[in-house]
Design a protein that fits this description.
The chain has helices at residues 5-18, 22-31, 65-73, 78-89, 92-97, 111-119, and strands spanning 49-52, 59-63. With 122 residues, it is mostly helical. The protein has a single domain (5-98), classed as His-Me finger endonuclease fold (3-Layer(aba) Sandwich), CATH 3.40.1800.10. It has a two-stranded antiparallel ribbon with strand order 1-2.
Length: 122
């Protein structure tokens, strides 16, 4: 059976960018139980991204686009990722204030933005 143009393009892209074949991509995906390694969700409409270290090109695994972006925002830095984990598990505000405090849920906005939003309502 011959490859479609899309399959050829995918094969070429995986080889050119990551030095793997679609079959090797599938091997990694199976090893990860067909889910993003971090959030453990299956891929949606698009395939999982091949996550790699930008300095060396080392392939680490497959991540959804959100988790891949989060890793990138941490600068591929394991120390920063560890500190982020510590921050989520034991927030410094708890120690500083002596207990957990709760504020407004969801996103907060400035008072001016709330006033502007309220002015649109009739």
């Amino acid at each position: 059976m011959t490859e479609t143009a899309a399959e050829k393009a995918r094969r070429s892209r995986l080889k050119r960018l990551y030095n793997i074949t679609p079959e090797e991509y599938d091997d990694i995906l199976r090893h990860q139980a067909n889910v993003c390694f971090i959030c453990e969700r299956p891929p949606g409409r698009s395939r999982l991204a091949v996550d790699h270290e930008h300095k060396t090109g080392l392939i680490r695994g497959l991540l959804c686009w959100q988790c891949n972006a989060a890793i990138a925002k941490l600068g591929d830095n394991a120390r920063r990722a560890g500190l982020a984990w510590e921050y989520l598990v034991d927030p410094p505000a708890w120690a500083a204030l002596g207990s957990a405090r709760y504020g407004r849920t969801g996103r907060t906005t400035t008072r001016a933005k709330r006033r502007k939003k309220a002015s649109y309502k009739i």
